[in-house]
């Protein structure tokens, strides 16, 4: 995702990787629209009774959840760095303008459509890009590791007592009650989530607009892990991996090493929370904190493997590149499609489907992206929201 000019030469494989990231994000975003909030991480809360639903949850946890978000953030960092390299010496003002417009788009997206919008955190984290751009690729790798450590360390401080209390049988603390309400099967919290899912458009927009200050605290908590992915993407561009200048064997070896480090741990974490019966005291820390280093590693594995295998003249690569060149538009368009299917002002299917059925529905916007993106890029070029982002940023700078 980058507010580039349509006249700039684009790297097909990088756009294809961006398209893959957008598609992967859809596979998790569907649960934001289809299920109560607690069920996003916890299959036992709603829509996860059948064996296929638990299998879908496990596959999503291990292979999808936060891996494609990491990949998307990596490409955001690389895209911002590419623009800075093309901007010459005067980089701060136009970059700040791009981030300001992106933040405004994210606020609008979160209020009107998707409460889990990532554009806001990308915009705020992106303000650090001109500073990070001064670092070498080795220093950026170290910075990414440092931000992951900050995220995990901070998370342990916040959630560590919840896990300890769970195994000690002390579930009455404020932190434990918070975890159960937000990640567990707390009945009053679940009823409240089901009621929110039935809101009308105006009612929901008004409520979310009033929650913007509180959301900023949530965004602040996710800054370190997103800065880690952004710094990692910048490092991979400076190290020329994302520019496809590494030998194929080297990229495949990196993918294999990262996958071998990540997958056993992710399977182990999935087994742990499942064996314990999905208590909120474990689901929250595992999903948000303990899985984060392995999510980042698997996101890196996806990037290395895809870049190694993409062929600029191949049909699949070119199709994914069309999706990726419209990444901002496609990201928001997905929310429009999901709202039309699940919201009360659409078909009203919120909380009416199982987890497996909701996953199947995720292929509706994916199919739409794959159909309309090549048509749009061939006939018009730059996407509508990409064009708006570029022009609004130019006006501000």
User: Strand content of the residues, in percent?
Assistant: under 5%
Reported for the largest beta sheet, the result is: none
The first-to-last residue Cα distance is 19 Å
Tally of helical segments: 19
- Helix and strand succession? HHHHHHHHHHHHHHHHHHH
Give the SSE map.
Elements: H1 12-34, H2 51-64, H3 67-87, H4 92-112, H5 119-126, H6 129-132, H7 137-168, H8 174-183, H9 187-196, H10 201-210, H11 212-238, H12 248-275, H13 280-290, H14 292-309, H15 315-325, H16 327-342, H17 355-361, H18 363-379, H19 384-396
Structure description:
This protein is an all-alpha fold and 397 residues long. It has one domain (12-396). The chain contains 19 helices and no strands. It has helices at residues 12-34, 51-64, 67-87, 92-112, 119-126, 129-132, 137-168, 174-183, 187-196, 201-210, 212-238, 248-275, 280-290, 292-309, 315-325, 327-342, 355-361, 363-379, 384-396. The chain starts with 11 loop residues before the first helix and ends with a helix. The mean pLDDT is 94.
In short, what is this structure?
The chain has one domain (12-396). It has 19 helices and no strands.
Name some characteristics of this structure.
76% helix, 397 residues, mainly alpha, 19 helices
């Amino acid at each position: 995702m980058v507010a580039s000019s349509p006249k700039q030469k684009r790297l097909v494989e990088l756009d294809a990787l961006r398209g893959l990231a957008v598609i992967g994000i859809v596979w998790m975003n569907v649960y934001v629209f289809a299920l109560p909030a607690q069920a996003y991480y916890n299959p036992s809360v709603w829509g996860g009774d059948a064996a296929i639903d638990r299998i879908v949850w496990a596959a999503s946890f291990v292979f999808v959840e936060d891996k494609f978000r990491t990949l998307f953030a990596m490409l955001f960092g690389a895209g911002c760095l590419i623009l800075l390299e093309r901007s010459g010496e005067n980089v701060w003002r136009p970059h700040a303008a791009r981030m300001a417009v992106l933040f405004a788009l994210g606020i609008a997206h979160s209020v009107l459509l998707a409460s889990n919008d990532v554009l806001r955190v990308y915009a705020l984290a992106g303000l650090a890009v001109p500073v990070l751009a001064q670092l070498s690729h080795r220093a950026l790798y170290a910075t990414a590791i440092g931000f992951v450590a900050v995220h995990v360390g901070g998370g342990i401080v916040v959630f560590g007592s919840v896990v300890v209390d769970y195994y000690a049988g002390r579930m009455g603390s404020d932190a434990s009650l918070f975890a159960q309400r937000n990640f567990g099967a707390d009945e009053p919290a679940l009823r409240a989530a089901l009621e929110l899912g039935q809101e009308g458009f105006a009612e929901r927009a008004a409520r979310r607009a009033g929650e913007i200050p509180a959301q900023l605290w949530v965004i602040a908590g996710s800054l370190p892990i997103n800065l880690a992915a952004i710094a990692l993407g910048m490092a991979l561009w400076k190290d020329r991996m994302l520019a496809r200048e590494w030998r194929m064997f080297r990229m495949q070896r990196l993918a294999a090493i990262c996958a071998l480090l990540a997958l056993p741990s992710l399977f182990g974490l999935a087994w742990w929370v499942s064996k314990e019966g999905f208590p909120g005291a474990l689901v929250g820390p595992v999903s948000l904190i303990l899985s984060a280093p392995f999510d980042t590693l698997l996101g890196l594995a996806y990037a290395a493997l895809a870049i190694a295998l993409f062929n600029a003249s191949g049909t699949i690569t070119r199709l994914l590149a069309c999706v990726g060149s419209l990444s901002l538009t496609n990201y928001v368009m997905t929310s429009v499609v999901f709202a039309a299917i699940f919201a009360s002002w659409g078909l009203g299917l919120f909380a009416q489907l199982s987890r497996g059925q909701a996953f199947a529905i995720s292929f509706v916007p994916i199919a739409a992206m794959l159909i309309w993106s090549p048509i749009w890029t061939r006939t018009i070029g730059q996407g509508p929201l990409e064009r708006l982002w570029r022009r609004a940023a130019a006006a501000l700078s």
